């Protein structure tokens, strides 16, 4: 198993790793181009195939961001050659549909079937997917050097969430269809480090830069639904949050080797608590209200300790990595946690209904150092280690077709 660190035999050539909107595809951006893996293949197959190509002929090697629209052939690329330019690319026809240039580096891109949202450190651009025309610019947003942003992916909706302040962990919601602000609410005392909508677009998970508490809020009202304590560490860096497709589970990954899984369920009031416990809770609420006027911050901390739940299950990675992304994948009536790491591995863990420490059931090497086979647009398998390009092969030398936007 991987040690989680770069070695001479395992150079870190992966610049970007992530899952698409419905967790059916893992995207890898590397020094030469991109690779897409199906999560179903990761769970079922002993040898992986992938869709991908070398983008050097288009000047798009060293891919920093790769975002694919569900399982379609439409994707966006940010290259290290000029991180201020967004390239909209159709990989089946091998055509760059359009380019959009900005005055600063692109930090985050999100797509759904209606909109493309581009996040810079101090503004957000919204484009119409159908014609790639700019619809709106959100200017002078709070400084967002981490590019914290997400957009709903459910049909007919395009709600965008981003930090509403540089001082507190407030979340601002913006409707990218009607181009109007929706709501702002405070999710954490500290600044935001991660945001993630569920697939229905009616919940959002949040984490601050402290990384110890993860919360779930209703959308668009901003009412707190769940609160979870990630672990005993005082501070960690949360790399990713994700909901299961049915919104019954939430997973988080960080700069530690532990992936946490939380169960999103509300116990009915009084159904599992004895009467004395209910009375005790009411007494505590009364004391809270009485003392909060004198020591509000201390009461808040005590209250959080008494109401925050721990993780339902955990999955252990072989070690901490430079970055990783996690997804909850439903496959054949079974829920899996899938973690893809920047050192070129993807791990799958079966979610046990009883929780606890989850078993690793699959692992694969991914990225340019893997022994995967490439699938050409015609369905033909090609070995990924083909080092000498064939000038007569359109897969190696695609036709140059470029339209600037």
From TrEMBL:
Source species, domain of life: Eukaryota
Annotated stretches, region: Disordered: 359-405
GO biological process: apoptotic cell clearance; cellular response to toxic substance; dauer larval development; determination of adult lifespan; embryo development ending in birth or egg hatching; embryonic morphogenesis; germ cell proliferation; germ-line stem cell division
UniProt xrefs under InterPro entries: PROPPIN, WD40/YVTN_repeat-like_dom_sf, WD40_repeat_dom_sf, WD40_rpt
Gene Ontology molecular function terms on file: phosphatidylinositol-3,5-bisphosphate binding; phosphatidylinositol-3-phosphate binding; phosphatidylinositol-4-phosphate binding; phosphatidylinositol-5-phosphate binding
Keyword Nucleotidyltransferase: no
GO cellular component: phagocytic vesicle
Keywords, alphabetical: Autophagy, Repeat, WD repeat
Family indicated by similarity: Belongs to the WD repeat PROPPIN family.
Name listed for the protein in its UniProt record: CBN-ATG-18 protein
């Amino acid at each position: 198993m991987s040690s989680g660190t770069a070695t001479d035999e395992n150079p870190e050539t992966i610049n970007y790793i992530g899952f698409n909107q419905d967790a059916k595809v893992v995207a890898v951006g590397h020094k030469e181009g991109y690779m897409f893996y199906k999560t179903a293949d990761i769970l079922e197959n002993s040898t992986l195939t992938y869709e991908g190509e070398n983008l050097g002929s288009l000047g798009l090697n060293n891919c920093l961001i790769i975002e694919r629209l569900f399982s379609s052939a439409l994707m966006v690329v940010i290259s290290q050659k000029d991180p201020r330019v967004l390239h909209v690319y159709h990989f089946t026809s091998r055509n760059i549909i359009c380019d959009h240039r900005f005055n600063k580096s692109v930090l985050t891109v999100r797509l759904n079937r209606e909109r493309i949202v581009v996040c810079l450190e101090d503004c957000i651009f919204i484009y119409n997917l159908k014609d790639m025309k700019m619809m709106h610019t959100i200017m002078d947003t709070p400084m967002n050097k981490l590019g914290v942003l997400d957009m709903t992916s459910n049909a007919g909706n395009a709600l965008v969430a981003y930090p509403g302040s540089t001082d507190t962990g407030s979340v601002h919601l913006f409707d990218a269809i009607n181009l109007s602000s929706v709501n702002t609410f405070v999710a954490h005392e500290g600044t935001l480090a991660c945001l993630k909508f569920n697939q229905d677009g009616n919940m959002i998970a949040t984490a601050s830069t402290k990384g110890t508490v993860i919360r779930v809020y209703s959308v668009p009202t901003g009412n707190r639904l769940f609160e979870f304590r990630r672990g005993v560490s005082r501070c960690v860096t949360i790399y990713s949050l994700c909901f299961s497709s049915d919104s019954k589970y939430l997973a988080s990954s960080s700069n530690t080797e532990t992936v946490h899984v939380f169960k999103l369920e509300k116990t009915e009031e009084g159904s599992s608590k004895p009467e004395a416990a209910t009375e005790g809770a009411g007494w505590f609420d009364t004391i809270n209200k009485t003392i909060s006027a004198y020591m509000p911050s201390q009461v808040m901390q005590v209250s959080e300790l008494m109401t925050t739940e721990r993780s339902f299950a955990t999955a252990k990675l072989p070690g901490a990595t430079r970055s990783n992304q996690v997804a909850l994948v439903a496959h054949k009536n079974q829920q899996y946690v899938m973690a893809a790491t920047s050192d070129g591995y993807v791990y799958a863990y079966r979610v046990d209904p009883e929780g606890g420490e989850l078993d690793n059931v699959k692992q694969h090497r991914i990225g340019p150092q893997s022994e995967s086979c490439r699938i050409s647009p015609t369905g033909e398998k090609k070995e990924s280690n083909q080092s000498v390009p064939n000038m007569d092969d359109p897969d190696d030398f695609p036709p140059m077709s470029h339209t600037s936007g």
